[in-house]
Each structure stands twice: as C-alpha cells, then as structure tokens.
Specification:
With 610 residues, the chain is of the alpha/beta class. The protein folds into three domains: 3-242, Aminohydrolase, N-terminal nucleophile (Ntn) domain (Glutamine Phosphoribosylpyrophosphate, subunit 1, domain 1); 245-440, Rossmann fold; 446-598, Glucose-6-phosphate isomerase like protein, domain 1 (Rossmann fold, 3-Layer(aba) Sandwich). The protein has 19 helices and 26 strands. The strands form five sheets. It has an eight-stranded antiparallel sheet, with helices on one face. A six-stranded antiparallel sheet has the order 5-6-7-8-12-13. Helix 9 (300-317) links the parallel strand 17 (293-298) and strand 18 (321-325). The radius of gyration is 25 Å and the shape is globular. The protein starts with a strand and ends in a 17-residue tail after the last helix. Bound molecules: 5-amino-5-deoxy-1-O-phosphono-D-mannitol. 5-amino-5-deoxy-1-O-phosphono-D-mannitol binds at residues 299-302, 346-348, 351, 354, 400-402, 490, 603, 606-607.
Length: 610
C-alpha cells in the first residue's frame, strides 16, 4: 500500500511531489524517493525511513526539473533499504509502483537470462527493465509500456517517465488505485486524492486495465490495448482532513471498507490453482511433516485470530494447535521441543508480550514464525532467522481498533492451513482447490456485507444507549463473539462479554433481561441448530437478539429482533464474513455516542510494554 505522486508542468517538481507524498505517508513509510528529469538526465534521491529523511537528503543535494515522480513505500518484496526504495531506474526509464507483481520470479529469471542485472530485490525494477528492453530497440515509450504491461500479472499502479521523452508521464492501473489531477498547463498523478488537493479539485480515477498518457497540455486515457476511454472527471470538495481519510469520517471506518482489497492483496500471488499449492514467500518451515504440534501466541485481536486459526489448522492440516495469550505464555513454563512450531500473530510486530513469547520459545528450541503486517518489525526480524514471516498485506492500519489487520490475519492463517495440509498430505488436491476457490470469493462477499451498512446503523441507533452487551457464537465463530465484544468495549466504552453460545447456560444466562442486547452468530454449518436453540434461551428470557445468519435463512427472523445476513461460504471461512457486521455495529455505536473512535481513551496502537 505505497504512495505515488507525479507532476508534469512548468514549476519545480520536487516540492510538489514531496508535499504530495507527505499527505500519503499513511499509506507507507519505510522509505521514500523522487526522480526528476532535466536536460535529458534523470536524478534520483532516496532515503530509508520516514519522509523527513528524504527531506534531509534533498536539502543537502537538491534536484531541479519540471517533470518528476515520487514514492513512499510500504515494503512487500524486498526489505526496507535505500536500494529497494523507489523510484527504480534502468537505462533512463524510471518507475514507481504500488502493488505486487505475481509473476515476478519468472520475469526476473527471463531478464537475467537476457544478461540483465538487478540493483534491488523489488518486483518493481522488473517493470523498468521490461520497458527499457523495448525502448533500447527504438520503440517509443507508450508502445514499450504497453508491451511491458502485457507481460506483467498482478496488482499494480505504475507511474513511468523516460529521459528520452520528457514531455510525458505514463500511468497504468490494475487493482491498485491511481487518480489523475487536472491543472492548467500542468497535470498530476497520485495514488490518492489528498496528495493533490492543494493543487486541483478536478480528478479522474483510472479504472482497472486502463492507462493514461499525461502531458503538460492534457491527459489521454486508453485501455492497455489502446482503445480510447472518455475521462470521467469529478470535482471533489473534500477538506484536507476528510481527504486523508478518503472521505470517511474515521480511519476505522475507512479501514473496515478497505477489507475487500486488503484481503485480495493478502491472497494475491500466493495461490497456484493448477496443483492447489500455496506459496508462502518469506517462510522456511523446513520439513513440516516433522511438526507434531503448534502453539500460537498473540494478544488482543490477534489472539482472536489465533483462536480461529486453531480451527483452520486443526481442521485442514490435522496438526494439534494450542493458542496462548502471549503475556501468559512464558510464565507457564511451556513444554516445548524441536517438533513444536510457535507462531506469533501480530499486526504491528512490536507487541512486547508477543515478542517476549517468541524469544522464549526460540530459547527452548522451537521453530518460531509469524503472521505479521509490518515489514522488518521486531517480531518479523526475530522470526526471520527461524521459520520466517508471512506478511499480511493490509497496508498501514491507523485506527487503534484492529479491523482489516484481523481479517487479513484470518486469510493468512487459512492459506497457512492449506499449505500445511498439502505439505503433510492431509489435504487432497481437489479439496484444496475447492477451499482456495472459496477463499477467493471472500473480497466480493465482504462487499455484500458492507452494502448493508444502513441496516447496521439502524441497529446501532436502537441499542447505543445499552449499558451491557452479550456476544454469542460457537465453533470458529466463538472467537468472533470475543472479537465483537472487544471491538465494542474498546471504542464505545460499553461493557460487553463474548461467550460460547453453549456455555451461556453455565452462568451468563443470569444477566439476561429485556435491557440486555445479545449479538448472536448463527450461520449455516455444523453449529447452526445448537446455536439457534441457545439463542432461543435468550429470547425466552426477553433478551433482545441481533442475529448474524446466512443469506437464504428464512426461519431465523422468527427468533431474532434484528437479522443481518452474510453470504454462505466454507464454515472455516465464515468468521472472515461474520466479523464485518460486528465491526460496523461497534463503529456506529461508538460514533453515535461521540467517543474518539480512532484513538480511544487509555489505548495505544501498539503496546510495547509488558
Ligand atoms: O499489533 P498486535 O496485533 O500485536 O496488537 C495486539 C493487540 O494489542 C491489538 O490487537 C489490540 O487488542 C487492538 N486494539 C484490538 O483492536
């Protein structure tokens, strides 16, 4: 989830680009760079870390020119370093990129066989080579870019310039955002509106499969095959603060709505359907048939992901899994040997309890590995020398309440389960293909859940004054009941408890009366009937019932006061869908109660103390 800015006009490009990048820093911040073309020569400045480091470099070594591109990076391929920072230049062609090139290994190998050498570990540099191969033969830049795009598979927003043709910028998009800003005698490109709001209010969002040639005089949009496309120009009246949140009121709301693309990014490049294999880049688990047990250690929402992961890994790969609160793990003298794998789950990669847990596990001889969202974070580095890291590609999560990090963790755990199942021979090819097909349906199914926001707001209005809430679920949806309760507690300050629906009769049933709203998850699957009869027990005591059920369930309305329907999917994937209404209910209750949703009291985004 990197940030891109480009400028072509008659003013100095660097200041405009760097200011634009500053407004996109929320998209990534492990390195940044600019490339400016002047007098047929490209000059690049790059720096690791936040944008202020690039500011320093530019102060010491300024660059001048009226055509340029810039980038702020959230690393996917290649660790954060100056070499891996964008822009990447090859033979006068400079490229910045947001996304993941899926077939990069194959393309890189082809280019190496042609005698090309690489300066970075990124997938992006491949695009610069592919274009340069063509322009070196005398092909014009537009045709060269089209030929390169025809070879690339994956998600991309590219912005490209050439020192031989300094009268244009070229951009192309598939699954990563690009917006073009229109000026007078100057034009702009960026991955998001905030970068350009200071200069223009006229924008055109490029669609997937489209490219644009941007000159000082105008913008020409076509498909990647060259078919002309009429630009749909939109005038935006957002304030800069609104723009940073993409028009959403809070980062949390924006991040809830980013889940379809974050999940697609987490799956992208990892699934090979032909032989039903999952490719775990960055992991070196060795011979997984020797693993006889897994322990998952995590905190908060990541712990809830671990609880769902237990169902996935045990169900698909048949490896026994224990899930530990990371803060408890090392104080219980855990029994660990070399056949034990310890998996840390952490969005930030900086949670002190989780870090301490894997350090302890490593000392005891376990293979440690992580599902993590932040590249090169402390937990990621700790695992690199052992079993490696599987990165979720959720992009930076700013809201303190974790949303897209959670659903991408679930996706990563599901992929891990399929990988382990295939490698250990517990999962047949045909079944694995079915599971992976179901997983690929999730982004679009989440869109369907998100489209019910209006109904969820009505529910939030009805119950936002309640003092307590109960959340109930069973099986893989029991951790979602815990997560729903945690979301509500942390942002609305309303007391909420998550329980296994079957456990309710052993205690919490005493709390139920007409003032207590209960959110129950009763989706189709092995736990449906039992859960419904548990929820009937709530209804019989006059409790208010909000039930999350599966589309097509016509009977459930008789039990519930409110019903929210989610699409049908594999029971182990179901939690990735059922948590979304939980997030939106918590969000809207908190918003109606006027709490500080993105920075709730007493909480920090990453808890770096024990
Ligand atoms: O960065 P981590 O995933 O390790 O963080 C773990 C918890 O601190 C975190 O999930 C916390 O519970 C969130 N506020 C939940 O929304």
């Amino acid at each position: 989830m990197c940030g891109i800015v480009g400028y072509i006009g008659d003013e100095e490009a660097t200041g405009i680009i760097v200011e634009g990048l500053r407004r996109l820093e929320y998209r990534g911040y492990d390195s940044a760079g600019v490339a400016v073309v002047r007098d047929g020569k490209t000059t690049i400045r790059r720096a690791v870390g936040k944008l202020k480091n690039l500011d320093k470099v530019l102060l010491e070594q300024p660059v001048h020119g009226t055509l340029g591109i810039g980038h702020t990076r959230w690393a996917t391929h290649g660790r954060p370093s100056e070499q891996n920072a964008h822009p990447h230049e090859v033979d006068g062609i400079t490229v910045v990129h947001n996304g993941i090139i899926e077939n990069y290994l194959q393309l890189r190998q082809n280019l190496v066989e042609q005698g090309r050498t690489f300066k970075s570990e990124t997938d992006t540099e491949i695009m610069a080579h592919l274009v340069a191969v063509e322009t070196n033969k005398g092909t014009d830049l537009i045709t060269a870019v089209k030929k390169a795009l025809a070879q690339v598979r994956g998600a991309y927003a590219f912005l490209i310039q050439s020192e031989k043709e300094p009268d244009k910028l070229i951009t192309a998009k598939n699954a990563s955002p690009i917006v073009i800003g229109y000026g007078e005698g100057r034009n702009y490109v960026a991955s998001d509106i905030p970068a350009l709001l200071e200069h223009t209010r006229k924008f055109c969002f490029l669609k997937d499969g489209q490219m644009a040639v941007i000159t000082r005089e105008g913008v020409k949009i076509t498909t990647e095959d060259g078919e002309p496309v009429e630009a749909a120009i939109r005038v935006v009246d957002w304030s800069p603060v609104m723009a940073e949140k993409g028009g959403h009121k809070h980062f949390m709301h924006k991040e809830i709505f980013e889940q379809p693309s974050a999940i697609a990014d987490t799956i992208r490049g990892r699934v090979r359907m032909e032989d039903a294999q999952v490719h775990l880049d960055g992991m070196s688990l060795g011979d997984v048939t020797k693993l006889n047990r897994l322990i998952i250690a995590a905190c908060g929402t990541s712990y809830h992901a671990g609880l769902v992961g237990k169902f996935m890994i045990e169900g698909i790969a048949r490896i026994p899994v224990e899930v530990d609160l990371a803060g408890e793990f090392r104080y219980r003298s855990p029994v660990i040997d070399e056949a034990t794998g310890v998996l840390a789950i952490s969005q930030s990669g900086e949670t002190a309890d989780t870090l301490a847990a894997i350090k302890e596990a490593k000392t005891l001889g376990a293979t440690v590995f992580a599902v993590c969202n932040v590249i090169e974070s402390s937990i990621a580095r700790e695992c690199m020398e052992s079993g490696g890291v599987m990165y979720t590609h959720a992009g930076p999560e700013i809201g303190v309440a974790s949303t897209k990090a959670f659903t991408t963790q679930l996706v990563a755990l599901y992929l891990l389960a399929v990988y382990l199942g295939r490698a250990r021979g517990t999962l047949e090819k045909a079944r694995a293909q079915e599971l992976l097909t179901h997983l690929r349906e999730v982004p679009q199914q989440i869109e369907r859940v998100l489209s019910q926001e209006a109904a969820l707001i009505t529910i939030a209005r009805r119950y936002h004054k309640a003092r307590d809430f109960l959340y109930l679920g069973r099986g893989p949806n029991y951790p979602i009941a815990l997560e729903g309760a945690l979301k509500l507690k942390e942002i609305s300050y309303i007391h909420a408890e998550g329980y296994s629906a079957g456990e309710m009769k052993h205690g919490p049933i005493a709390l139920i009366d007409e003032h207590l709203p209960t959110v129950g998850i009763a989706t189709q699957g092995p736990f449906y009937e039992k859960t419904v009869s548990n929820l009937e027990e709530v209804k019989a005591r006059d409790g208010k019932l909000i039930i999350i059920a599966t589309e097509g369930d016509s009977k459930i309305a008789a039990t519930a006061d409110d019903v929210v329907l989610v699409p049908a999917n594999d029971p182990l994937i179901d939690p990735i869908l059922t948590v979304v209404p939980m997030q939106l209910i918590a969000y809207h209750i908190a918003d109606l109660n006027g709490t500080d949703v993105d920075q709730p009291r007493n909480l920090a985004k990453s808890v770096t103390v024990e």
